[in-house]
Amino acid sequence: MSCFKIFFIFINLILIFNFTYATAKEPNKVIVAKINDHIITAQDVLNAANNLPKNIKEKSLSEIYPNIVNELINQHLVTELAYKEKLDQNKKIIELLKKNKNQIMAKYWLKNFLDKKTTEKNIQNFYNKYLENFKSSKEYNASHILVKKEDEALQIIKKIKDKSQFSKFAKTYSIGPTKQNGGNLGWFRSGQMVKEFEKATFKLKKGMVTKKPVKTRFGYHIIMLNDTRDSKPKRLNEIKKKIIEKIKQNSLSNLEKEIRNNQKIIIFDFEKVAEEINN
User: Fold this and answer.
1) Which of helix, strand or coil describes residue 217?
2) SS3 173
3) What CATH number did the domain enclosing 176 receive?
4) Within a domain: residue 113?
5) pLDDT over threshold 60, residue 11
C-alpha cells in the first residue's frame, strides 16, 4: 500500500457539528468556552474529536463534548505553564514543531490535490470510459446448502422434491453464512466462486438442483440455479464512491512516481538501523 494511502486516511473522515441557533454560524465562529482572554471554538472541538480513538469517535458528539472541552481547557492551561518555562525556545521542541508543521502542510496540500482530481467533471469522465469499455458477461444467481459430510448432502438431495423446499432445507441444514436467506448467494459471474462450485453451477439449467454433492474446500454443496442474465453497466450513483476511490488511488500513485523522479533517495536496511540504535 502506498505511503500516501496510509498517511492520509484522515481525508475520508467527516464530522458534523450540530448547533441549534436561529442563524447558522461557522464552527470557528462559535464559542464553546473561555479561559480568561483565550477562546475555544466549536472548530477546536471538531479538530480534537477528529484525533480521538475509533471506539470513542463512534459515540455521539453530544456525549463526548464535555470531556473534549475540559481537555482543551486543561491543554491551554498546561501550555501557558510551558511558555512560562520558555519551552518554546527548547531545541528539541523547535524541531518537533517543525516536523508537525511539515506534516500538516503535506496533509492539506494532498487534500487540496485530491479535491481537484475528484471533481464532478472528472468523475463523469471516468464513468464515461467505464461505459465505453464495458463488456457484458453471463451472470448467475444460485442458492446452496453447505454441509460437512457427503452422506449428509446425499440425504438432503433425496429429500428435495421441488425448488420451493430448497430455501427451507438451507435454513435448517446449511452451515454456510447465507443459510438465513435460504442459501441465496445473489448474482455472480465467472471467477468469483471456487472452480468446483462454478463448474457445477454453469452446467445447470434454471431451476435445476445438482444431483450429486459438489466438494470444495468449504465442504459439500447442494446447488440450485435460480436464474441467469447478461450483465449491464452499473448506474453512476451505484459506483460513484468506488470511482472516487479509484481516481484517488491512481492520482496518488502517479504523484508518488512524479515527485520521486530524479530524486536521490536512499533507504537504509532495517537491521543496520536497529543495530546502530542498540549499540
Assistant:
1) coil
2) helix
3) 3.10.50.40
4) no
5) no
The kind and range of the H/E element at 24 are none
Can you tell me the distance from the alpha carbon of 46 to that of 166, in angstroms, rounded to the nearest whole number? 52
Give yes or no for a contact between 83 and 60, defined as CB atoms under 8 angstroms apart.
Answer: no
pLDDT at 63: 87
Task: Say yes or no: 37 and 64 in one domain.
Answer: yes
Q: What's the pTM value of the predicted model, to 2 decimals?
A: 0.60
pLDDT in tens, 62-94: 888 999 999 999 999 999 999 999 999 999 999
Partners of residue 145 on adjacent β-strands = 222
Ranges of beta strands (E only) in the chain are: 31-35, 38-41, 138-147, 184-189, 214-216, 219-230
Q: What is residue 18's predicted lDDT score, i.e. its pLDDT?
A: 44
Residues 145 and 225 in one domain: yes
| Full domain range(s) for residue 215 | 135-230
Hey, how many other C-beta atoms are within 10 angstroms of the C-beta on 143? 23
CB atoms near residue 209 (< 10 Å):
19
Tell me the three cell numbers of residue 262: 530524479
SS (H, E, C) 135-168: CCCEEEEEEEEEECCHHHHHHHHHHCCCHHHHHH
φ, ψ (nearest 5 deg) of residue 15: -110, 140
DSSP strands (E only) in 171-217: 184-189, 214-216
How far does the chain reach from its first CA to its final CA, in angstroms? 32
The span from the CA of 85 to the CA of 148, in Å, is 70
Quick check: 147 and 175 in contact, CB under 8 A?
A: yes
